[in-house]
Every structure is written in structure tokens, then in C-alpha cells.
Amino acid sequence: MNNIARFRTFVQALTRLVERHGADEAEMLSQGETLLRGIVTQDDWLPDAFAVPSSDSYRQYLLYCDPLERFSVVSFVWQPGQRTPVHDHTVWGLVGVMRGEELCEEYSTALKPTGRHLVKPGQVDRVSPRIGDIHVVSNATQDRTAVSIHVYGANIGAVRRHTFDPATGASKEFVSGYTNATIPNLWDRSRELSR
Ligand code: FE
Fold this sequence. Notes:
alpha+beta, Jelly Rolls, three-stranded antiparallel β-sheet, 3 helices, binds fe (iii) ion
């Protein structure tokens, strides 16, 4: 079932949250986490096209971007064995796992490993320059595609950020962009209205 109304409600709640607490990162992370947990534990709304993996690399599909670019929502899709480089975000972010299992490995600003943990369906991880912004995310399973829903405090695909080589300390600027050129249509209410 493609219950897109659930995602629309989520986007509306995030919009209200950013209107009210957009300047307060701790509040955005805390209330945003509650909202995100609500949507990753109800796996009936993500259109299939935004959960398609690729053998080339993990995929990042933009699902929604706030018109004023105060936040964006992205689905990440990983096949077994796929992982991000060591990277930062430069803005706050929330990672909620919906399918499969992911491994998050954190690094200090000096690029020393500081921790690693599994994120299971329904769980949410946080990042930001204030609380720890550098990590690697990977599919933690050998046999299942993983799907996570991420919320960031900017149009994340257009943010200049960095990848790092912990062995040498070298950093490289990158702008991630998105896999998709079209986004889900949240606004056709005809099916709901005809019930
Ligand atoms: Fe990340």
C-alpha cells in the first residue's frame, strides 16, 4: 500500500516544527526524532520507486525539500556491502532505519574512531557539528537491502560538505546531489476524498 497521506502529515508536522523551533537545534533533534520514529515504524507510505537499490552504490532519493530549504527528507537505500565514505553534514541530521539494519561508525573531528552501533528498524540516530558530525553508515546485513529515512536541517543534496581519509587526515569537499530527478506527489488527495 502506498499511504502517501502518512508522509504528507509527517512533512506538515516537520514544517510546523521548523516554524516554531527552527533556530533551536536541540529541539529540532528531539521533536524531529519523535516524528521520524513515527514514520519509520509505519512502513506503508514510501513509493517503491524511492526504495530501489543499485549495484553501483547506495542511493539517496530526495522525498521532500522545504520550499525555504530549512529541511529535507531523503530515503537512503543500501545493498549488502555498501557504505558511505567518512563524511560530515555541517547541519543537524536524523537517520531513522525503516528496513534492514545499519551500522553507524562515528569519528571525532581529529578523525579518531569514537564509537559504532547498530541502528535497527524504528531506531533513530542523530548527527550535527555540535554533537558529533562525522561518521560512516553502512548496510549491517549480508543478505538484505536496508532503507533509512533521513531528515536534515538544510537541502542536504546542495550543501558543500566533506569526505575524509582517516589514514591521512585529508579532506575533500563534495556536494552529494540526489539520485532522482522527480519527487513523490504528496498532494493528490483524490483517492482519500473518494472514500
Ligand atoms: Fe551521514
